[in-house]
From TrEMBL:
It comes from the Bacteria. InterPro entries: AB_hydrolase_fold, Peptidase_S9_cat, Xaa-Pro_dipeptidyl-ppase/CocE. Transmembrane segments: none annotated. It comes from Bombella saccharophila. Residues 451-653 form the Peptidase S9 prolyl oligopeptidase catalytic domain. It holds the Pfam family Peptidase_S9. This is Prolyl oligopeptidase family serine peptidase.
């Protein structure tokens, strides 16, 4: 790798983030678990055509593939999937039960041996297609969410228990959506989350408990219909049930900022042991938002520890934190210097915890260590990828959390700002750098702080990057998230422009070379910003929304009513949909636009990009064959970034000519 010489030298610098780096063997990790001293996680392997594998670290430290080579653990329930596997230990071996993305159905593999079907094929009597997600063991009992798609396209959701014989017993049905079925330790109660259209899991859900003996039926403990409260992530600690809620705690101050924080209920039985009441147990609100938008199954942000303690992964001012709660001392920060993706899981037989670590200055890894240990005492079990030889800390741009005042509504506005990296393997910056503005999707997503190719690609090439947590983002409380209701395509655009103007005013970037890029929902924000602001000289829409009316007609079941809250009820608000759609005002978009889209996108169909691009003279569209919503192929990700870089440099060159 060629080192950068002093300014004025003609030596060519080769930035350290290259297409070759992004297309080499790079693992992705998700959903870490601990079972009887084993640490397990799901791992995708691009060098095996993106195949997913459940990997386990045995108590002796050895690593094992726990699903066979012909298996593909995964599910497309809700399109985004997640929670496709669960594991239990029978005293001799680890059993992994998983949904198979290719073959369908549920399968069981014992210690990585040949997978055997658990409950038959993906199709049942009458041509009904079954899918399974959010699998969870309690002892040897397995519960999960099952969706049945009928030949006429109607989908029904239910909670089921899958018997060892393969018989599937329905436990709950009737709601539009279910999530997180969890059996109590004694097996009597089933806790779960349910909600109905037109709500999303971050707008209105309920926490329910079903008495599986039939003595008391099903009770709603928190949230539910009409409560404007999101409850998620139930988990048990003996007879106590915990969940995360953004409701208003009892005795909360008038200025309480509603955010996801743990709540608790204690089961109290009568003298006969039959009638059980659920008594709320007061907990002080966590000093961070403990929760993530439930786009996928299998997320875990909080866990119970002995002596009434809780361990949680949260977000404070846009930055991930790990928190420990003790009944006597309250909340405190722990795992300083570590950045878990989900809550760390305790490993049986010791004080160690395991987590998926995603720091801002190093590749992701599966990590183990104690809560109080120094960084040097932590063990990297498996790394996703390795930094190229010679890369120094100066070659890596790290985020600075910045905030800006807003004129109305909840604030301040937050963003992550990255200055161009100044290491020996980075392009030199002459004067003020150009700026790439990133608009995340969702729009309930959030600007992450972990080391990312999509950021470092730009910062090692002399660009600054601004990743905006516009209002509507998660991690800042319910009011911040809900501020976008009815204002998508308006408030997010204002916030992105406000953040850009803020860094321009600080003198950090070149105001003549600001570009904006966004994916999915962020694509609509990009196009609206180009139409309504002169701050940007170009933009890129990655599988972005252009026609809201078409999206309503074509999108999938999980998001079928999502726009009712973000835009207006459909079809009564059709005029608003038309007014917010970039396809309605192509003449307002005069800056060059690059469209990047996959032809297998089930969330935002390719037709959305094609319809608008054909009406924009200063635009181009590149289609990636076989790619769905969110590029997954390393080759496609690398090629798309090369194409985007060339696009911006061409725009800059034409402006300078």
């Amino acid at each position: 790798m060629t080192a950068r010489r002093s300014s004025g030298s003609s030596s060519v610098v080769h930035p350290w983030v290259t297409p070759a780096l992004m297309t080499r063997k790079t693992r992705n990790f998700a959903e870490i678990r601990a079972v009887e001293g084993w640490v397990l996680w799901q791992e995708s392997r691009p060098d095996e055509q993106g195949r997913s594998v459940i990997v386990g670290r045995a108590p002796d430290g050895s690593l094992h593939d726990l699903t066979p080579p012909d298996a593909q653990p995964g599910t497309e329930m809700h399109v985004y999937g997640g929670g496709a596997w669960a594991a239990m230990y029978d005293g001799a071996a680890i059993h992994v039960v998983f949904s198979d993305r290719k073959r369908g159905g549920l399968w069981r593999s014992v210690q990585g041996g040949e997978a055997q079907p658990v409950c038959g094929a993906a199709y049942g009597e009458g041509g009904i297609a079954y899918s399974y997600a959010d699998l969870a063991f309690q002892g040897e009992r397995l519960v999960c969410v099952r969706e049945a798609e009928h030949p006429d396209g109607v989908i029904h959701a239910e909670l089921v228990e899958v018997m060892p014989s393969g018989v599937v017993c329905s436990l709950q049905s009737g709601a539009d959506f279910y999530m997180a079925p969890r059996l109590s330790p004694d097996g009597r109660f089933l806790a779960f989350i349910a909600w109905q259209n037109p709500h999303m899991p971050w707008t209105e859900t309920g926490l329910y408990v079903q008495d599986l003996t039939g003595a008391q039926g099903t009770m709603c403990l928190a949230g539910g219909a009409g409560q404007a409260c999101s409850v998620m992530g139930p988990f048990w600690a003996g007879e106590r049930l915990y969940a995360l809620s953004d409701g208003v705690p009892e005795h909360a101050a008038a200025d309480y900022n509603r955010h996801w924080t743990p709540i608790a209920f204690e089961a109290k039985a009568d003298a006969a042991g039959e009638e059980v009441t659920w008594q709320p147990q007061p907990l002080p609100p966590a000093p961070a938002e403990i929760g993530l938008p439930a786009w996928v199954f299998g997320q875990s942000c909080c866990a119970a520890l002995p002596e009434g303690q809780l361990l949680a992964r949260g977000v404070r001012h846009g930055v991930p934190v790990t928190l420990l709660y003790h009944p006597q001392t309250g909340w405190k920060d722990v795992l300083i210097g570590a950045v878990p993706d989900d809550v760390p899981v305790p490993v049986e037989g010791g004080r160690d915890f395991a987590w998926l670590n995603s720091p801002p200055d190093a590749p992701p890894c599966v990590m183990m260590g104690s809560l109080e240990s120094e960084i040097e005492g932590r063990i990297c079990v498996r790394q996703a990828w390795a930094l190229p030889d010679g890369v120094t800390p100066a070659d890596i741009a790290v985020p600075e959390t910045v905030s800006f005042p807003v004129e109305e509504g909840p604030g301040p506005l937050y963003a992550q700002f990255y200055r161009p990296a100044q290491g020996p393997h980075c392009e030199a910056v002459q004067g003020k750098p150009p700026l790439v503005v990133i608009v995340h999707g969702g729009p309930t997503g959030q600007a992450r702080t972990d080391l990312s190719f999509k950021v470092q690609w730009w910062t090692c090439r002399g660009f600054a990057v601004l990743d905006v947590n516009y209002r509507g983002s998660t991690g800042f409380g319910r009011a911040y998230r809900a501020a976008l209701d009815g204002r998508w395509g308006v408030l997010d655009v204002q916030d992105c422009c406000r953040a850009v103007q803020g860094v321009v005013d600080k003198g950090w970037v070149d105001p003549q070379r600001c570009v904006i890029r966004g994916s999915s929902a962020g694509g609509l924000t990009v196009l609206s910003a180009l139409a309504h602001s002169s701050l940007f000289v170009a933009g890129t829409s990655l599988y972005g929304v252009t026609d809201l009316r078409g999206l309503v007609a074509e999108t999938h079941r999980f998001e079928a009513c999502y726009l009712d809250g973000l835009i207006a009820p459909w079809p009564e608000g059709e005029a608003v949909y038309r007014a917010r759609s970039p396809l309605s005002w192509p003449e307002a978009i005069t800056a060059p636009v690059l469209f990047l889209h996959g032809d297998a996108d089930r969330v935002v169909p390719l037709s959305q990009a094609e319809a608008l691009q054909s009406q924009l003279p200063a635009s181009s569209l590149h289609i990636y064959q076989g790619e769905g919503h969110g590029f997954r192929s390393a080759e496609v990700i690398a090629e798309s970034l090369e194409r985007e870089l060339a696009f911006y440099r061409d725009v800059f060159a034409q402006a300078a000519a």
